[in-house]
């Protein structure tokens, strides 16, 4: 009986600690909900992630010295190699556009002619996917979009259908795009771009591309050449003339060189991108004359870094929040263990069915509120990084392909004069089906 007070005191202390941990988890979830609301209302993501990093560090009761080192310093410093990948990828994309390779590929597509409008549109989608296997960024999308979108309109495709198809065709090759892959890899550092992932990436890309083509085929009867001039006039492209760009046909293979070098020879992305960039310059005559080469080199580098300057600072804020979320992950482990299915097939299907939660930077979008989801899932250690990366990548690419918070989609809506509801109405159902199929592929390859 003398031990009872001590035992009672022990259980009381244990209960208090448990309740404190539970309260912390509840507060963290409330800030998470507030963050989602902030994003939906159009808040600045960089500021939001930075504030969330501070809040989660404070609420999670992380010691001050660890906050400085583990939340702000180490994550940013360790992200340096990924920033280098992004810079080289952006430079390659800029060289593709400014050297004339990307516009030439687009113009070659237009030569199919108006006699076969459906075939012309399908070729435009294939070319779009081909280019964005390596090219990345809103600058590249705009540069290609002002060429390819008028081509689709010129054969009579309605503006809303053309924009949705174009955006989804950009999203399809993002499974293989090394720049975007290395951004999501920040959450899952043990995942590898190569081997099994590349096979999965090709399959997932083809699933999405085929779905986009079926979308066009379904709407083929809406192709009306008599409305082409009207649609072109609406977007201000009625007098637009594409220059006759002289580029060797051999240069058309340049966009897939980085992927091929990785698949065939296991090259790292940086030498692969560098080789492809130099070949692009060589094949388009940018080496003819030292001063011409230096000018082109400097201009493309400046523009490429300018294209991603905001992105880099956004990623710095994101990775700091990821650091805080990882340290707080232990508080969520009991909840996730109780809620998450441990069966990988059920989990993959659940993510596919719930994929639209990635819209509006929601909890399944890793460059939105889903950053917390990714950081927590990675931190609790229930599943491997190789499985988690594609698991979350699939719904994220639904958003990249159809979400109105994606920068190039915002540009497309303005350029094509398309209503938001029409853009979502066309894209979301298609990408929802694609997400379910691709999540099953995630299980097949990584489950």
Structure description:
The chain crosses the membrane at residues 20-40, 47-64, 76-97, 118-149, 161-181, 193-218, 269-287, 308-327, 339-360, 372-393, 426-446. It comes from Levilactobacillus brevis KB290. This is Citrate Transporter. Keywords: Membrane, Transmembrane, Transmembrane helix. With 447 residues, the protein is mostly helical. It has one domain. The protein is built from 19 helices and no strands. It has helices spanning 4-40, 45-59, 64-78, 80-98, 101-110, 117-131, 138-154, 159-171, 178-184, 196-218, 228-234, 257-265, 269-283, 290-339, 344-353, 370-380, 385-402, 407-416, 420-446. Helix 8 (159-171) runs antiparallel to helix 10. The protein is globular and about 85 Å long. The protein starts with a helix and ends with a helix.
- What is the string of SSEs from the N terminus onward? HHHHHHHHHHHHHHHHHHH
Structural Rg: 24 Å
Largest sheet: none
Shape: globular
CA distance, first residue to last residue: 54 Å
- Overall residue-averaged pLDDT value: 85
Bin the helical content.
Answer: over 70%
Q: Which blocks of ≥5 consecutive residues have pLDDT under 50?
A: none
Structure annotation, total helices: 19
Structural class of the helices, strands and pairings? mainly alpha
Care to count the β-strands?
0
* Total discrete domains: 1
Strand content: under 5%
Brief description of this entry?
With 447 residues, the protein is mostly helical. It is built from 19 helices and no strands.
Brief descriptors of the model:
447 residues, mainly alpha
């Amino acid at each position: 009986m003398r031990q009872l007070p001590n035992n009672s005191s022990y259980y009381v202390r244990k209960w208090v600690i448990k309740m404190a941990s539970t309260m912390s988890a509840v507060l963290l979830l409330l800030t998470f909900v507030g963050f989602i609301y902030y994003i939906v209302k159009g808040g600045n993501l960089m500021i939001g992630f930075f504030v969330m990093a501070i809040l989660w560090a404070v609420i999670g009761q992380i010691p001050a010295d660890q906050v400085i080192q583990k939340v702000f310093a180490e994550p940013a410093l360790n992200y340096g190699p990924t920033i280098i990948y992004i810079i080289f990828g952006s430079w390659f994309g800029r060289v593709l556009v400014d050297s004339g390779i990307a516009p030439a590929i687009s113009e070659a597509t237009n030569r199919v002619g108006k006699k076969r409008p459906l075939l012309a549109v399908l070729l435009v989608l294939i070319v779009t996917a081909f280019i964005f296997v390596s090219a990345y960024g809103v600058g590249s999308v705009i540069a290609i979009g002002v060429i390819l979108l008028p081509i689709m309109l010129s054969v009579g495709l309605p503006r809303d259908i053309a924009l949705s198809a174009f955006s989804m065709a950009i999203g399809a090759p993002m499974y293989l795009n090394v720049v975007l892959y290395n951004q999501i890899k920040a959450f899952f550092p043990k995942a590898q771009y190569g081997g099994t992932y590349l096979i999965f990436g090709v399959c997932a890309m083809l699933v999405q591309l085929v779905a986009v083509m079926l979308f066009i085929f379904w709407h083929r009867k809406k192709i009306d050449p008599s409305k082409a001039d009207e649609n072109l006039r609406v977007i201000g492209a009625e007098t637009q003339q594409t220059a006759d760009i002289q580029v060797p046909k051999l240069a058309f293979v340049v966009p897939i060189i980085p992927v091929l070098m990785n698949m065939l020879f296991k090259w790292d992305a940086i030498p692969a991108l560098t080789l492809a960039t130099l070949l692009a310059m060589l094949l388009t005559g940018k080496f003819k004359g030292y001063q011409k080469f230096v000018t082109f080199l400097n201009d493309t580098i400046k523009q490429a870094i300018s294209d991603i300057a905001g992105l880099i600072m956004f990623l710095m804020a994101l990775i700091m929040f990821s650091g805080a979320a990882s340290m707080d992950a232990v508080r969520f482990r009991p909840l996730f263990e109780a809620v998450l299915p441990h069966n990988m097939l059920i989990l993959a299907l659940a993510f596919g069915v719930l994929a639209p939660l990635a819209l509006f930077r929601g909890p399944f979008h890793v460059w939105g509120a889903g950053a917390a989801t990714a950081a927590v899932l990675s931190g609790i250690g229930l599943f491997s990084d190789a499985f988690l990366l594609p698991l979350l990548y699939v719904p994220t690419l639904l958003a990249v392909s159809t979400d109105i918070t994606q920068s190039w989609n915002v540009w497309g809506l303005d350029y094509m004069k398309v209503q938001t509801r029409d853009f979502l109405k066309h894209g979301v159902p298609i990408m929802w089906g694609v997400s379910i199929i691709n999540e099953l592929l995630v299980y097949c390859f990584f489950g």
